[in-house]
Structures are given as structure tokens and as C-alpha cells.
Design a protein that fits this description.
The complex is a heterodimer of chains A (396) and B (166).
Chain A: H1 3-16, H2 21-30, H3 38-59, H4 65-89, H5 92-116, H6 125-141, H7 144-165, H8 170-185, H9 189-209, H10 216-228, H11 239-258, H12 270-289, H13 296-299, H14 311-333, H15 336-358, H16 364-393
Chain B: H1 3-30, E1 32-45, E2 49-56, E3 60-62, E4 77-84, E5 90-96, E6 106-117, E7 122-126, E8 131-133, H2 139-144, E9 148-154, E10 160-165
Antiparallel strand pairs in B: 1-2, 1-9, 2-8, 3-7, 4-5, 4-6, 6-7, 9-10
The chains are: A mainly alpha (396), B alpha+beta (166).
């Protein structure tokens, strides 16, 4: 409540006898006059800051290296200390945004100093230092924004390491595990999804940097899936499962197009089969003891088919099995979410099957025309069925 | 919020940046200067700005100078030892996958193995000084100069830098 408003209101309260006039004074004392014009002051600070920044930017190359370093450190300290002060005493959002700016200054500082002093790195070490700073700040403030910063830096650093040095940078991986702990202790759905997406990206970097075959991804995604369904896990970790299923779905789509005649020649490691068997067995047992009896349908997608031959057709079968599984389970349990999931997966799979089987020998225009009609008819029937389930699910 | 952890985090970041500066200047005092033959190549990197790419003659290691039996893999760390010649240049004497105490007059450099050039039968390595940053717009003049001489200082803690490129 504003002070002016309070003054008017409290006058009535005194008249009504709700409070005495000395109580009114005491209350008003708590709402002291706000100082000056906060908006004007903010703009004043912003303009001075911008003036300072543009002055430095235009004279940057003329400055000596030591002066440059001093300027970077000055800004780093100024943003951190002001941010910390504001966070404690005034406004958390403003303080936090200054701290994020300071973190950016630190990152820019690492690369600028590296450039000034001819540093060349042999790894993603600069990114590790930067991400580590973000991680420590996260431990200080426990704010989602800092979690976001840390996860972006780790992922970007890992991609950088993979593309420039063909290497998965292990310290960044360890930091990522640290983030996993933070997520476990205090996370939410959005952060969980981001973490899982980062895990998928890092899995790609890991597998391709070490020159391993793509099928190891199946194992890595299966681990993500299992973690999301651990019996004593936190509820927000459930989102891992959706990301894992989506990722393995995409892997299976790739298999449909890329496997085929070459299936048998894919080099094959016994270690993979051993690891996969153990994990898969565990995942099956886990889904059997869960209260939802249908989660085993997800596991269909994790079956490796690259070894047996006809890998493309088998992958298609997996995709169809998954889609039909959820469709049937959805109809039987009258669960409209499952039906929706199954419908989307089924339409996608049909499209892929159609591309795979008909693309080679059909005239292009007939191909697209027939495909369109096919999907149209399919979606019509599926949608009708879905509405039926929805209606039956609702209490009449 | 834990205030002391916060101040420690800030202090460590400042110390890290300062350390980058200090160790660079300390190299002048404690390092050993060597002169290497180079062949400058192509300028410009989107991430950093303007620089010339430098390749050194000592980065082509003839296979017979490799002291281990096993061929290194891409990305492995290798140690190359250089020695001053009468011409004033430092030239390669040996290379291996483990570090050794350098003899008098010799300097050991840390490098990263890149690939085995079958045609010339040499191991290509990178000593990590392939970028020499220069003022905006002067990249061409240095590149056109052709073969050059690089003066390099190597610190006892392994760090090294280019002092000049002529």
C-alpha cells in the first residue's frame, strides 16, 4: 500500500475508533516516504554506465593490456558486489540480474584476457572455469536463473570441446553431475527438462567424440529413462522419461532410414550387449512393480535391432509397437493423454513408413497426394476414437 | 545466501583473471627464450578476432625421432625436446610420450599429437602457439612475409608465449 493511500484510509480508521491516533502514527512511521525518483535514478545510472562502456569500447585497442585487465576486474567486482548488496537488502530480481551480468563479465574476461596474453587452450578448460563459477554462485543463491546459466555453459562448453577438440571434456561432465545433485535436492519441471536435454546433447558429444558407434546412445538414453522411474526419485525427475523416450524415438527413426542392407556389418561390442541386458532387465522389473502397469510400452523403443538384419523394418516395427501399445492401453483404460500420445506417434510412424517404402518407386506427386489422403483418413478415425474415449472418461 | 561463500567465489574469479595476467608477465622474468623457424598461414578466427596462424618446423616430427614404440593417438600429449644449433635456431632432437628432465642447452615443449602424415612419414603435432594475435587489419602484411622467425619464451611451469614474429 502506498503511503498517501494509507494516510487517507487511516484517518477513517481513527474516526471509526478502530485505532487510536498514536497507533496511526506508528503505522505511518513504518511506511516512510520513498526516496526520490527511482526511475530517474535508474536511468541516470544506466546512461552513465553506457557512456562509460562505449568510451571503453571505442578506445579498447588503444589501451594497454594491464589497463584492460584492470577494467575487466573493476567491472567484475562492481557488478558482483552491487548485485550481492541489492540481493540481500533491496530487490532480489535486480540483484540477481546484476550477478548474472557479472558472470558474463567473468566469461568475457577469461576470453579477452586469453586473447590479450596469447593463451591457447588444449581443451574446453576456459568453459569449465566459467561454468564452475556459475555452479558456485548457484550454491550460494539457489536460484533457477543461475541453474540455467550453469547448464547452458556446461552444454556449450561440451559442444565446443566436441567440435574443436573431438573430445568429451570430463571435468565439465563432473560439474554436470553436481548440477544433477542440485536438481535432485531442489528442482522443478522446467529445469528437469533442460537438464535432460543437456544430457542428451552431451551423450551425442560423448559417443561421437570417442568415435563410438551410434548404438551406445540407446544405452545412455535407457539410463536416463531408468533414473526417471526410480522408485524413490523426486517427482519432478519424471520429466526425464519423456525426454528419453523422445530421444530414443528419434534414434529409431534414424534407424529406419539408415539401417537396412548394412545392418549386419555394424560393428558390435559384447560389452554393449552385456550392459544393455542388465539395464533392460532392471527396467522391465522396475516397470512391473510400478503402479502404472503400462510403462513397459516405452521400453519397446529401447530394443536394439541393428544386429539381426533387416534393421530398418524391425525399427519400424518397434515404432509401430510403441504407438499401438499406447493407443490400445489408452482405449482400454480410457486415458485420453495416452491416446493422444499414441495418436501422434502412430501418425509419425505411418508417415515414416510411407516415406521409407513408397518414396523409391512412386511418382512424386502421386506419392505426396496419396500420403496426404492416407494421413487425413487415419487422423479422422483416430480423432473420432479419441473423442469417444474422452466422452466416456468424463462423468455423465 | 551464504555471504562468505559468495565473497570467496568472487575473490577466486578475480584471482583467476589476475593470475592469467601475472603468470604472463612472470614468464619474461623466469622463462627461457628460444628461436624457432615458422611458416605463417591463414589469418582470422570468428571466435577471437584477428590473428595469424603460425606453424613451426619443429611441429613436423620425423618418425625416426619418436622414442616410443607405440604410435600416439590423435589428441595425445607429446613432449618434444629442442636444442640450440649454431645458426641460433632451436631444432628438434627427440620426441616421446613422457616428460624427461631436459639437459643443459635443451628445452622441453608440451604438444598435442594431430596426425601421422604418411607421405612425408612425419608426426604432425601442435605446440599450442599456432595463433599470434595482431592489430586489426595488419594480418596480410605478416602473412606475405613468408617464412618467419618466432621468438618464444618458455616458462619453467610449461607456459609459453610468442614474443615476436618477424
Amino acid at each position: 500500500m502506498k503511503r498517501g493511500q494509507l494516510e487517507k484510509e487511516s484517518e477513517k480508521w481513527v474516526k471509526d475508533g478502530t485505532i487510536t491516533s498514536s497507533q496511526r502514527d506508528q503505522i505511518l512511521k513504518r511506511y516512510s516516504h520513498t526516496s526520490g525518483h527511482p526511475i530517474l535514478l535508474t536511468f541516470a545510472a544506466l546512461f552513465i554506465g553506457l557512456g562509460f562502456l562505449t568510451f571503453i569500447a571505442s578506445n579498447w585497442s588503444a589501451l594497454s593490456d594491464i589497463v584492460k585487465l584492470a577494467i575487466i576486474i573493476f567491472f567484475l567486482l562492481a557488478f558482483y558486489l552491487t548485485g550481492g548488496y541489492l540481493y540481500r537488502n533491496r530487490s532480489k530480481p535486480v540483484g540477481l540480474s546484476l550477478i548474472i551480468i557479472a558472470l558474463c563479465v567473468f566469461g568475457a574476461g577469461i576470453f579477452l584476457t586469453g586473447q590479450m596474453y596469447n593463451y591457447t587452450s588444449f581443451s574446453a578448460f576456459p568453459f569449465f572455469i566459467w561454468a564452475a563459477a556459475a555452479f558456485v554462485l548457484l550454491l550460494v543463491f539457489w536460484e533457477s536463473l543461475l541453474f540455467l546459466a550453469a547448464i547452458i555453459l556446461i552444454t556449450a562448453g561440451q559442444i565446443y570441446s566436441g567440435s574443436v577438440y573431438q573430445d568429451f571434456y570430463i571435468p565439465l561432465g563432473i560439474l554436470f553431475l553436481g548440477l544433477g545433485w542440485v536438481l535432485f535436492v531442489k528442482g522443478n519441471r522446467l529445469l528437469t527438462v533442460l537438464f535432460a536435454v543437456s544430457y542428451v546433447i552431451q551423450s551425442l558429444v560423448f559417443v561421437f567424440a570417442y568415435g563410438w558407434s551410434y548404438y551406445w546412445l540407446i544405452l545412455l538414453f535407457l539410463i536416463l529413462y531408468i533414473v526417471s522411474h526410480l522408485p524413490y526419485g523426486q517427482i519432478h525427475l519424471k520429466s526425464f522419461g519423456s525426454v528419453a523416450v523422445m530421444s530414443i524415438f528419434i534414434v529409431d527413426i534414424f534407424q529406419v532410414f539408415l539401417l537396412g542392407h548394412g545392418s549386419e556389418t555394424v560393428e558390435y561390442s559384447n560389452l554393449f550387449f552385456l550392459g544393455w541386458s542388465l539395464l533392460f532387465l532392471y527396467a522391465v522389473i522396475q516397470s512391473a512393480i510400478e503402479s502404472t502397469k503400462f510403462n513397459w510400452i516405452d521400453l519397446v523403443l529401447f530394443i536394439p535391432v541393428f544386429r539381426i538384419g533387416e534393421g530398418d523394418l524391425l525399427s519400424l516395427l518397434l515404432l509401430f509397437g510403441y504407438s499401438l501399445g499406447w493407443l490400445i492401453a489408452g482405449y482400454r483404460k480410457e486415458h485420453s493423454e495416452w491416446v493422444a500420445k499414441g495418436t501422434i506417434a502412430f501418425l509419425l510412424t505411418t508417415l515414416i513408413a510411407y516415406f521409407q517404402l513408397a518414396w523409391a518407386f512412386m511418382d512424386r506427386s502421386i506419392f505426396f497426394f496419396t500420403g496426404g489422403c492416407l494421413l487425413f483418413v487415419l487422423s479422422f478415425f483416430l480423432e473420432r476414437k479419441r473423442r469417444q474415449v474422452r466422452r466416456e472418461g468424463e462423468p455423465s | 545466501m551464504n555471504r562468505w561463500l559468495f565473497y570467496t567465489a568472487v575473490a577466486l574469479q578475480v584471482i583467476f583473471l589476475m593470475g592469467m595476467g601475472v603468470s604472463y608477465y612472470a614468464m619474461d622474468r623466469f622463462g627461457e627464450t628460444i628461436i624457432l623457424e615458422t611458416q605463417p598461414l591463414d589469418p582470422r578466427d570468428p571466435f577471437y578476432g584477428d590473428y595469424v596462424t603460425v606453424r613451426y618446423s619443429i611441429e613436423d616430427i620425423p618418425v625416426e625421432m619418436w622414442e616410443d614404440k607405440k604410435e600416439p593417438a590423435r589428441g595425445d600429449t607429446v613432449f618434444i625436446t629442442v636444442e640450440e644449433q649454431d645458426s641460433g635456431f632451436y631444432e628438434l632432437v627427440k620426441a616421446s610420450s613422457h616428460s624427461e628432465r631436459a639437459k643443459a642447452g635443451q628445452v622441453e615443449l608440451k604438444a598435442r599429437f594431430e596426425w601421422h602424415n604418411e607421405q612425408t612419414d612425419t608426426y604432425q603435432v601442435n605446440i599450442g602457439l599456432d595463433r599470434y594475435f595482431i592489430e586489426e587489419g595488419t594480418g596480410n602484411t605478416i602473412e606475405q612475409a613468408g617464412d618467419a622467425t618466432a621468438e618464444i619464451v618458455v616458462a619453467p611451469w610449461g607456459q609459453k608465449k610468442i614474443i615476436s614474429l618477424e
